[in-house]
Amino acid sequence: MSLVLPGDVTDLTDATASDSALQRFLHGLPGVDQVGAEKRAATLATRSIKRGSKRWALDLAISMVDLTTLEGADTPGRIRSLCAKAVRPDPSDPQVPSAAAVCVYPDLVGTAVEAVGGSGVQVASVATAFPSGRSSLDIKLADTRDAVAAGADEIDMVIDRGAFLTGRYGQVLEEIVAVKEACGDAHLKVILETGELATYDNVRRASWLALAGGGDFVKTSTGKVSPASTLPVTLVMLEAVRDFAQLTGEIRGVKSAGGIRTAKDALRYLVLVNEVAGPEWLRPDRYRFGASSLLNDLLLQRTKQLTGVYADPDRVTID
Amino acid sequence: MATDRLDVRKTYKLYLGGRFPRSESGRTFEITDSKGRFLANAARASRKDVRDAVVAARKAQQGWAAATAYNRGQVLYRVAELLEGRRDQFVAEVAAAEGLSTRKATSQVDAAIDRWVHYAGWTDKYAQVDGGLNPVAGPYFDLSVPEPTGVVAAIAPQRSSLLGLTAVLAPLLVSGNTAVVVASERRALPAITLSEVLATSDVPGGVVNLLTGHVTELAPVLAGHLDVDALDLTGCTGTEVDTEELERLAAENVKRVVPAPAEEPAFDAGPAGPARILAFCETKTVWHPKGT
């Protein structure tokens, strides 16, 4: 494994030689200016977006949604209706793009794959003892292989926060590498669960760890822990992905998940992506929203932009 | 010793979802008394404030409609109780806004308070007046009952700032509707003070949302809003709003519309009975099999 890293470090071989070396490297990353990051995110959130751009951004946001259902009460019927919605978010308007993916639990991947057919909508599955990640590596890998075998195009794994917070970075990295291997051709999204990482410095370290481990996306949260995705956390992760691309030439993505419910929120995230990572990240294979109710609000706002009158929430499906 | 104390002036704001925000747009407009003297700057609501108000009203509607009739009556009666406690303030504000003598303003305020009591009494009675058993040719027990329409947008009367507002607002709350009300444009201050009473009188946040601003700007947004179920244009009389256009916009989602009268009604002539309550009700009919 050979990786380019910030500062003078140009190779991870030494940095990953031992836990202590990895720790030295991760703790050598520049600290996040908490006040600055929050202020910048807040400032960008106030940016006004004019009508033409807003219309474009709403369509873009729709195409970036990972339509998610991760409930104990999920049934095959519910998954099928969710998939239908992902393929044709607004059946009355063929101009509306499809969502990027549906995100389900591993046992429902088969149902989802069948339901999306050849529509181009991806099927993402959470795996590795989601959402807590509290299980042995063997079980996590079996969980992943199971989802991939069922036809998942994307795997959303969780990192072992317990190991991360106790400083066992090597273990976290090994797990990511092992899961990436188990994924085969499937894309890997690494969920950092930033709500449990406590500091932005930790978010930055975990992002680098996930990118170094081969994650195709870094994802903020499972959606099961509060706070879930926030603008400053996404900002820190976008910075990591941007720097990683600059240093290695490898393009990775970011997924913000949890707590994004309104089109207004989504537009704020897109402004952040544009300003931090750059406009080349404004595409569904580099930035995603993990959400369920967000899609409805995007559709309502889209209708509002087209018709000029405020839309009725009863006119979109609940799931 | 003469005191040089400075007045503590009130900031007149909107009433949205149980809170008192300024307009999202940051705009204000001047409110003058009947002689054109400056009274205050009021918030000038925008399209987006209308949107927020409708969201708040929709959120509150189910809970308000689900409250028992008895409870809704208590809450509306409580509004009267608190109005009574601030009677002098309302008399002064109504007198300033409408250019009335204290005696006439007092009778307006008293009538407004009595109107709240009147409608508080209707909450558990209007259903008996309007609903009932329908004789049908079949083995069915057939009942019709009035139910609230949902979110009602109302333009408050332009001249009668407190009594007119009460006469429009109170009846639509009786059945369990929630309201987005645009206050009288040039006589908005008593309405804003009324919203302070509503906020402290057990009326759940979002049940009444009160906007101040230009009727010509706000009414079309409300009329076109697809999540508004009914539209009361009573207060459009005496404004430059094109009510025909509003009715056309309202037709898009078949809103129930109470059209603007040719003249502003004489609200002090007494309450209109259950007519205004039933204007914002839908009839639900239940067919229950009863055997032979």
Helix content of chain B: 40-55%
Total count of strands of chain B = 10
Q: Quick one: CATH class of chain A?
A: Alpha Beta
CATH class of chain B: Alpha Beta
Note the gap between the termini of chain A: 43 Å
What value does the average pLDDT of chain A take? 91
Determine the fraction of residues in helical runs of chain A and give it as a percent range.
Answer: 40-55%
Extended strand count of chain A: 8
- How many DSSP H or I helices of chain B? 10
Low-confidence stretches of chain B: none
Which series of helices and strands of chain B comes N to C?
Answer: EEHHHHHEEEHEHEHEHEHE
Explain the overall architecture:
The complex is a heterodimer of chains A (319) and B (292). Chain A is α/β, with parallel strands linked by helices. Chain A has a single domain, classed as TIM Barrel (Alpha-Beta Barrel). Chain A is 48% helix and 11% strand. Chain A contains 13 helices and eight strands. Chain A has helices at 12-15, 19-28, 34-45, 51-63, 76-87, 109-116, 137-149, 161-165, 169-183, 200-212, 231-248, 263-277, 294-307; strands spanning 65-68, 101-104, 122-126, 154-158, 187-191, 217-219, 253-257, 287-291. An eight-stranded parallel beta barrel of chain A has the order 1-2-3-4-5-6-7-8, surrounded by eight helices. The longest helix of chain A is centred in the last third of the chain and has 18 residues, at 231-248. Chain A is globular and about 60 Å long. The mean pLDDT of chain A is 91. With 292 residues, chain B is an alpha/beta fold. Chain B has a single domain (28-126, 147-283), classed as Aldehyde Dehydrogenase, Chain A, domain 1. In chain B, 41% of the residues lie in helices and 18% in strands. Chain B contains ten helices and ten strands. Chain B starts with 27 loop residues before the first strand and ends with a strand. The model of chain B has no long low-confidence stretch (mean pLDDT 95). The A-B interface holds A 308-315 and B 50-51, 54, 58, 221, 224-227, 249, 252-253.
